[in-house]
Amino acid sequence: MLRVGEHFERTDTGRQRRVNEDAFHARAPLFVVADGMGGAQAGEVASGTAVEMLSAGIPSGGGTVEQRLAGVVQSANARIHELSVSDDERAGMGTTLTAAWVGEKEVTLVHVGDSRCYRWRDGHLERLTDDHSLVEEMVRQGRLTPEEAAIHPQRSIITRALGPEDTVVPDTLTVPARGDDLFLLCSDGLTSMISEAEIAEVLASTGDIEVAGRALVDRANAAGGKDNITVVLFRLEGVGTTAEEEAEMTRVGMDAVAASAPVAAAAPVERRAPRAPREPEKKRGWRPGVGTLLIAVLVAVIASGAYLASQAVYFVGSDSEGFVTVYQGVPYELPAGISLYREDYSSGLNIAQLPPAQRRTVAEHQMRSLADANDLVRQLETGRLGVP
What's the pLDDT tens digit per position in 101-138? Predict the structure, then answer.
């Protein structure tokens, strides 16, 4: 099973624009980049509306992930178009949109415009989306070479966007994915300033996605920064262990507690009075007897066994902001604010979005294996959980 191990996002106004009309969403399992267009801050409204509607989640059931994502994008298009025709200052506003949804074994993309999605795998950069732009259409028709398209004076003209028309047909694509795949979503403020070879060079230079993300934005600005620049990076990781491995982890933890318990009940060794010192004028520090040391060791063994057992179990709850989260450990806190759990994975799904029965499932804090906890969250995220 896959999940997002880490992500980084940054947006920058650039060197030649006064406002930033880009917008993004970056919270697993959904990542979105939108590049707005239109005067009087209309571009900000268009991109913000698109991201807001996508970030609210996709409906459960009713088709594949591709179909459900496309449905939300079409609803966003209708909303942006409605806003544009109802206000003269927003007439003609629109936005590009590229979104990635992380599934259990794959990543699903929905795309309109010339923002892009790339995958970095094994030192190779692969573009996964096709630009809906005039020059890209000409390249596909064989009328321009990629090199000619890169410097064409009309390269910024897009042929499809959310908002200008009352309907839109987004591209959708599902690609198989695996642990350590790195995905890049970006607005054309990046790709119009630096080449794909330069993007690959940056990604190859470091395994730190924050360093890579900042370097991409810096390079685009150094090349002129003619447009707003938005970069969203996320790296996948494989999670879950086999049933045999999980059973062994749990057994080791529980055996540590069980094995220490009988010994803890053993009678302490008798402690003899200390022998009188030969030189009374020289005081010596107090030394604990053998029994005291033994008891201390046994307490430590029991505590370590209990801790080991707690680290072999997981539970699902919600964090301080209400997002559904997988925790490692047990849902208890000791005096002095010492927690017996830690956050393992934070979803992009807020508990407020769930129906009452599913909220109760999250609030139960039932002990689970790692695979079971991750599976529950993925079912909640994708709407497959069979609880009304």
Answer: 999 999 999 999 999 999 999 999 999 999 998 887 78
Q: How many residues does the chain have?
A: 388
3-state helix, strand, coil split of the chain in percent (to 5) is 40, 25, 35
Domain boundaries of the chain, sorted by first residue: 2-238, 243-272+286-310, 314-382
- Dihedral of the alpha carbons of 357, 361, 362, 365, in degrees to the nearest 10: 150
pLDDT (tens digit per residue) in 14-23? 999 999 999 9
Whether the per-residue pLDDT at 272 is higher than 80: the answer is no
The C-alpha angle 180, 26, 33, rounded to 5 degrees, equals: 100
The answer to whether the Cα torsion of 198, 203, 209, 215 is positive or negative is negative
Which residue from 274, 285, 351, 340 is spatially nearest to 318, judged by alpha carbons?
351
Residue 153: predicted pLDDT: 67
Contact between residue 45 and residue 91 where contact means Cβ atoms under 8 Å apart: no
What distance in Å separates the CA atoms of residue 388 and residue 384, rounded to the nearest whole number?
Answer: 10
Per-chain mean pLDDT for the chain: 82
What does the radius of gyration of the chain's CA atoms come to, in whole angstroms?
Answer: 28
User: What digits encode the pLDDT tens for the residues 189-199?
Assistant: 999 999 999 99
**């509607």: which residue's tokens?**
53
Distance CA 267, CA 301 (A): 17
CATH architecture type of domain 2-238:
4-Layer Sandwich (3.60)
Q: Give the Cα separation of 292 and 113 in Å (integer).
A: 73
Torsion of CA 64, 65, 69, 70, to 10 degrees: -40
- The distance from CA 76 to its chain's CA centroid, rounded to whole angstroms, is 23
Q: Which is nearest to 113 in space by CA: 58, 151, 159, 150?
A: 159
Is there a contact between 347 and 375 (Cβ–Cβ < 8 Å)?
no
Q: What's the average model confidence in pLDDT over 216-240?
A: 95
